[in-house]
Structures are given as C-alpha cells and as structure tokens.
Amino acid sequence: MVTYPDNFMQEQETVIAQLVGLASDPDVKVIVVGQAIPGSVAAVRKIRGETPRHPDRDGRAARGSGYREPDRRQSRSSRISSRAGRTIVDVAHKMGVTDLVHYSFPRHMSMELLARRRDIMKQACAEQGIKFHFVTAPDPMGEGGLPATSSS
After folding, report:
1. Which of 28, 40, 112, 152 keeps 20 to 30 A from 70, CA to CA?
2. Contact 16, 42 (CB under 8 A)
3. CATH 3.40.50.11390 domain range(s) in the chain
4. What are the angstrom distances between the C-alpha of 9 and each of 36, 65, 90, 140, 148?
5. Among the listed residues 27, 30, 37, 38, the one whose alpha carbon sits nearest the alpha carbon of residue 62
C-alpha cells in the first residue's frame, strides 16, 4: 500500500513512480487506486504498456472515481463510484452501524460523481435504518492547505 504525496497536484511524477513500482512487484496481483488523482491515468497507461504481463494479473490496474481527469476517466468509473456508495452502507449495516457520517467539502460535492455517491449513500442508509449525517470538512486544497484540515 502507498499513500498519495501531501502535495499530489505538484507531485504527479511521484504518483506515477509509486504505482509503477507497485506493478513491478510480482507479489502484487492488482492495483486499486481509490481516487484517480492527477498522475494516476498516466501511471495506469505506463503499467499496462511497460510492465511484463503476469499470468495472475492480466487486468492489473483499476481506478476509482476520477476527480481531475474526467475526460480520461474509464466509463466504468461512474459505475464503480455509484456502487461504492451502496456497498459502504451495506457493509456498515452488516457491522451493526447505527449512524454513518460522510465527511466532504464543497469542491468535491460540486462534482457530479461524488454528489451522486453521497445521495446513494443517504438513500441506502434510509433503506437500512441507518442515520445518515453529512459533515462539511475543510478542503485540503483550500485556504490554509493541508494544515487547516488537522484538528487541534
């Protein structure tokens, strides 16, 4: 597992290098990128084009919801994102969750895929008898940057 660089918008080459590095490990069967940030599309293309084929991982890379590169996003991304909303609630219900808190910020909620996933989660919570709470969080790309997102 790797995490995105804090300043991923300016460190796309790091994102690419991290994902390509994972793909070169023979023990890694698949790479799932939860949020297709800048650099992830180029990494997937590089992985598919440059890494040797492995019999156990023909489709080595899958990207989740795309945030910055919607024109390059695979058509399956919207289906993955929509299903994720229902899956999260289904798993939470099986775990006995009574309240589900969805943290986000206006910049993300202005994106159709993310807003739709939130709405699906809200509807699924109602169907499962789970209380849904939407909480606005500080935007790490907004004023104050990443330090503004830390609680004191």
Report:
1. 28
2. yes
3. 75-152
4. 12, 16, 33, 11, 17
5. 30
Q: State both tokens at 83.
A: 């299903």
State the DSSP string of 55-94. Answer: TT-TT-EEEEEESS-TTTS-THHHHHHHHHHHHHHHHHHH
7-43: pLDDT as tens digits: 787 888 998 999 888 888 888 777 777 677 888 888 8
Token pair of 54, please?
């492995």
Q: What is the pTM of this model?
A: 0.52
Residue 114: both structure tokens together: 């993310």
| CATH number listed for the domain at residues 75-152 | 3.40.50.11390
